[in-house]
Design a protein that fits this description.
Helix content is 29%, strand content 15%. By secondary structure, it is of the alpha/beta class. The protein has 2 domains: 140 residues, Rossmann fold; 106 residues, no CATH class.
């Protein structure tokens, strides 16, 4: 009897830290099961396969592609479009592909301020000729090319159609395995769905909630949590109340507030807006001035706090720069 042919699996790393690549190895011995089910045809960080190998494949020749990272450059956009064309199932794998992630925080500014900071303003930078990367550079040997650095980072689904989302920074190994087995068995939710839980981190968290109102937010270094009470009720900005479950509340369990890496829970589009709405119900004041003080003193970085992972996907956009017309 002939063996069942293996499916074809691709993995790609765009604008992200690479943690999602490592998370696949957290499957431990189940990675052998993945090997039994799939032939890995493209995984630049681990397998010696070239882009032109993918280009030569038949459209739809890849069964599943786990694409992690946002779209920051022209090269990443090309790869997103290529892998979409070649894949039957394209999964936005991890927070950066799903919502933009930490790289998406740069959308609070633009390409020019980013380059000014990186290549000219940092204390350790010596660049008297004010050199910057260029898409094309003429050399005696020929033209050197670099990808174009976009002004705005986009999520994967702002670039191509995505079949499923697997959130997390990185996704937990159990959720990765759930996704793989669901794909293999064909027991998938409707296209466009998030693979995983529909509740919030609070539902997985064992800390006790007492519906307590708070008058002050603390930075994580200012207090030591008691280990039993809801971190938000102790004044720590914990995003579990507005964040999709799936991580087993690993951070709150050890006294570290949830920072929202699994994105908004079911039915919510903008994670930051949902978090701000949730906080408005627990601040113990009706005076606008006092509410403003509590937020200003306790949450000095609202964008980084409420949109740590979801700025690129949320409703919030960078402010318009008004030119002084003369």
């Amino acid at each position: 009897m002939s063996e069942e042919p293996k499916g074809k699996l691709a993995l790609y790393w765009a604008a992200s830290c690479g943690g999602c690549e490592i998370a696949v190895l957290a499957l431990n011995e189940k990675i052998l099961d993945v090997d039994a089910l799939f032939e890995i045809v493209f995984w630049p960080v681990a397998v010696d396969a070239k882009v032109h190998d993918v280009e030569k494949m038949a459209d739809g020749g890849i069964d599943v592609c786990l694409f992690n990272g946002g779209i920051r450059t022209s090269e990443q956009e090309y790869m997103a479009r290529l892998l979409r064309k070649k894949s039957k199932v394209l999964v936005a794998f991890g927070s950066c592909a799903h919502e933009g992630g930490i790289p998406g925080l740069a959308n609070a500014t633009g390409r020019r301020p980013i380059f000014d900071t990186v290549y000219h303003r940092t204390p350790s930078t010596e660049n008297p000729d004010r050199l910057e990367p260029q898409p094309k550079t003429e050399m005696p040997e020929g033209t050197l090319h670099l990808p174009v650095f976009y002004d705005t980072l986009r999520t994967l689904d702002q670039t191509v159609e995505v079949d499923y989302y697997l959130p997390g920074c990185p996704p937990e190994a159990d959720r990765i395995w759930d996704a793989i087995t669901a794909i293999v068995s064909g027991e998938l939710p409707p296209p466009g769905s998030v693979i995983g839980a529909e509740t919030t981190v609070c539902h997985e968290c064992p800390l006790k909630r007492n519906e307590k109102k708070i008058k002050k937010f603390y930075r994580t270094w200012e207090i030591i949590p008691d280990g039993e009470t809801c971190l938000l009720e102790q004044g720590l900005l914990c995003c579990g109340i507005a964040t999709r479950a799936g991580c087993d509340a690993r951070c709150p369990r050890v006294g570290s507030p949830c920072i929202g890496c699994y994105g908004p829970n079911e039915g919510v589009h903008d994670h930051g807006a949902r978090m701000m709405a949730a906080l408005s119900s627990i601040i113990d004041s009706n005076a606008p001035e006092e509410i403003d003080r509590i937020i200003r003193e306790g949450i000095p970085d609202p964008v980084g706090s409420f949109y740590c992972f979801g700025l690129a996907a949320g409703h919030l956009r960078r402010k318009k720069e008004v030119q002084n017309a003369k």
